[in-house]
Amino acid sequence: MKFKPANNIQDLQYFGEFGGVNPSISDSSTYTFISAKTMQDTFEGNTDGCYLYSRHTTPSNLYLSQALAAMEGTESANVTASGMGAITPVILQLCGAGDHVVSSRTIYGGTYAFLKNFTPRLNITTSFVDITKLDIVEAAITPNTKVLYCESVSNPLLEVADIEGLAKLAKKHNLKLVVDNTFSPLSVSPAVLGADIVIHSLTKFINGSSDTVGGVVCGTQEFIDSLKSVNDGACMLLGSTMDSLRAASVLKNLRTLHIRMQQHSYNATFLAEKFQGLGIKTVYPGLASHPSHELFKTMMNEKYGFGGMLTIDAGSLEKANALMELMQEKNLGYLAVSLGFYKTLFSAPGSSTSSEIPEDEQKEMGLSNGLIRFSIGLDADIERTFDIMKACMLEVGVLQTEMA
Ligand code: PLP
Description:
- The chain is α/β, with parallel strands linked by helices and about 400 residues long.
- Helices cover about 40% and strands about 15% of the residues.
């Protein structure tokens, strides 16, 4: 039977303590115990259902974690204070001094910086590879490799990872496949395709209102328990815990994710087809011209489409900047990083979210100066949006009259 992530969220039933239709928020940093013995047992990890201290977890965090585990089809999950607060403990839980990571070379700039500049201090090294070439990925694996890391749809180039192929490699070499699914919630279910651990920055589509940062790690009960261990759990000890008030608000937003993703995907598909039709270099997994379009189709939960992210090449950084400023002036969206908002957001990754990646490496991976990354919003009238965007493109010279 086909995996139905939105049904899994919808089917969860929570009541608040006083019969409220939303679960009550646990507004406490610490919890009482009736008996001292139970407190001791809880610290030793022997008592289920007891809460000790909110850095470990809270009832509110568990509600959100349970919904996200249901969405990804994993046994368990743990919500964190940000996406980076999910990624960094996962790497540090899985790797120690002398260990090695094989990572996609096109990943979010913060994750790249962590693996490239920070973890070598702990003698954890990373090889960055073209994740779309399984033979190159396999060739980079060494006896010390512990983790295979990628994004389902990569930031910012929208490369698509062959999760089933990577999962086979991970099994063969006894590695953990860690997939950041931030760009494709509901559309792609990496754990169902064989990933061991799925991460999201909740900051983006899942929360969808650009009012907080947040993250989640989804995985087996054993792995999630290990992250929260009071003795050696990276989430517990590094302290990237989500606050209960936030967990409650993200849970409320999660309930409309399926409707939002459908609209993001519809609008992005409309614009991508129109831009391509105008002769503008456009990258969107939903276009037949995307090198991994067919692969994406085999992986996707169809109903949610190809997602809300697309890129165009404006030709130069100057033209990209002029276009973004004009589009903002015309109220088509905001010149801002991040994604998943109701308004369209646009930025030039080479000089913003991927600026951690050195220029020569940007060039090698195909990240051009004029690249604009769009997170397409929930616009009610996408035809009107397109007409105004086209006029902006003509005005700044991204589009020539003869192309239009
Ligand atoms: N993963 C991806 C794909 C991202 O785009 C981002 C942020 O842009 C992150 C992780 C980091 O998430 P956060 O900003 O919530 O720490």
